[in-house]
Each structure stands twice: as structure tokens, then as C-alpha cells.
Amino acid sequence: QVQVVESGGGVVQPGGSLRLSCTVRGAFVDKHTVRWYRKAPGKERELVAEFSSGSGGSNYADSVKGRFTMSRDVSTVYLQMNSLKPEDTAVYYCNAINLWGKGTQVTVSS
């Protein structure tokens, strides 16, 4: 069965970095739109970044632009997160080929 699995979350100090991975088992993510979302307690779900299958480009929310970068290979999409801020604390979810992963927790705190 096709499965989407996020990994790479953890606890990091402000200004630190993490790299999240979204691995798709049983399918290929190239030629498909892939999106990273995040959900913080008491906050609405936010679209963080995406690869567009139509345009072939990547887009980022203003809140993370210049700090987060997406990349990918055939089966895995990555989100490099630099200069992390406490407000980046959230559960990060990957959406690929109309499937959701279970999320990975990112906590930015001293």
C-alpha cells in the first residue's frame, strides 16, 4: 500500500536547523505536487511550502521564506529548516499524491 511518512522532527534551539523528510512508499513523488503543512496548538493549519507539479517550481509561506528550502528525489521530499524560531514550533505534515502522513513534531525552544 502507498504510505507517506514524515521524519526528522525534534527539539532545537532558536537559530538552529532541522531537515524533515517525507518518504512515499509504493509510489513516486516526482511529477506530483507535494506540500508541507504545519499545525501549532491554537493555530490554524498553515501551508508552509510546496512543489507544484504544474509549474515545476517551489513556493513558500512568507513566514518561512528565506529560511526553509524544499528538495526531492524520486521517493522523498525534504524540507531544510534553518534559522528556526520559536514560532516555528508545530507538528509538520506532508501531503503527497492526496495522502497525509502522521506528522513530525518540531519544537524550537531554549
The largest pleated sheet is described as: 7 strands, mixed
Report how far apart the termini are: 40 Å
Q: Give the helix proportion (percent range).
A: under 10%
The succession of helices and strands, N to C, reads EEEEEEEEEEE
Shape: globular
| Total beta strands | 11
Overall mean pLDDT stands at: 92
Structure annotation, total helices: 0
Would you mind describing this structure in some detail?
This protein is mostly beta strands. It has strands at 3-7, 10-12, 18-25, 34-39, 46-51, 58-60, 68-72, 76-81, 90-96, 99-100, 104-108. The strands form two sheets. Strands 2, 4, 5, 6, 9, 10 and 11 form a seven-stranded mixed β-sheet that branches. A hairpin with a 6-residue loop joins strand 4 and strand 5. The model has no long low-confidence stretch (mean pLDDT 92).
List the helices and strands and how they pair.
Blueprint: E1 3-7, E2 10-12, E3 18-25, E4 34-39, E5 46-51, E6 58-60, E7 68-72, E8 76-81, E9 90-96, E10 99-100, E11 104-108
Parallel strand pairs: 2-11
Antiparallel strand pairs: 1-3, 3-8, 4-5, 4-9, 5-6, 7-8, 9-10, 9-11
Features:
110 residues; mainly beta; single chain; 0% helix
Q: What's this, in brief?
A:
With 110 residues, the protein is an all-beta fold. The protein contains no helices and 11 strands.
